[in-house]
């Protein structure tokens, strides 16, 4: 597809000229201690992600993809190295400052959805904007309804998570991630439990946000089709980057 080729070419040019990286990673490592001693989950990762680009992180189960995503998003702290997200060195921020950065500019879709069980689908989607307390309640509700409509859940707005299927919960999680129009969207297997048709609709929605708002997408995926639509793919093998956007 010519459009995809052109985008990938432009992405390479922007990387070569190092245009406004939104995420910069240097020598990033994550080690944990378990019963058998010290375990290295991520080892010396270097990565640079340009503003407005889309990057797929791929690799076998257990290779460290979710761990990397959590570190990039400031949800977890590194054992070594550095992550700059939107110009801020994450290791220099305290937990409150990291939370403020996340709630302002970053959206997440977790591998395990993490919806609030005592809130309805609509309330879950409204939550990030309600927490910011900047937008009138009625406008928040309207935005959340519009997003639930876009992910095909306009008939399920009053349902609690436990009454929704796995794929439906995932779509609520996506709508919740989009509601703040984040500058960076991190998504861990966003199409993992969706059928093909719903998966395509979700992928379209993510790329539409990427184009319209200049949002940067960082996606962990096993879905070849989704990876190919991204500007670049990085592959992790046993905690090391084996190709991709090293610097
Ligand atoms: N807190 C922890 N303590 C011990 N081991 C951990 C911890 N967190 C992750 N691991 C291990 O690190 C490795 C990488 O985990 P991670 O969840 O990042 O993999 P993944 O690539 O996302 O896999 P999947 O595709 O199955 O989701 C796994 O072997 C996992 O068991
Ligand atoms: Mg994972």
TrEMBL record:
Which UniProt key words apply to this protein?
A: Antibiotic resistance, ATP-binding, Cell inner membrane, Cell membrane, Membrane, Nucleotide-binding, Transmembrane, Transmembrane helix, Transport
Ubl conjugation found in the keyword field: no
Q: Which Pfam families match?
A: ABC_tran (PF00005)
Coiled-coil region list: none
Alphabetically, which GO biological process terms does the record hold? response to antibiotic
Q: Which GO terms describe its cellular component?
A: membrane protein complex; plasma membrane
Matching Gene3D superfamilies: P-loop containing nucleotide triphosphate hydrolases
InterPro entries named among the record's database cross-references: AAA+_ATPase, ABC_transporter-like_ATP-bd, ABC_transporter-like_CS, ABC_transpr_LolD-like, MacB-like_ATP-bd, P-loop_NTPase
Q: Residues in domain ABC transporter?
A: 23-247
- Under the GO molecular function aspect, what terms does this record hold? ATP binding; ATP hydrolysis activity; transmembrane transporter activity
Q: Which family does it belong to?
A: Belongs to the ABC transporter superfamily. Macrolide exporter (TC 3.A.1.122) family.
Give the protein's recorded name. ABC transporter ATP-binding protein
Q: Which organism is it from?
A: Caballeronia novacaledonica
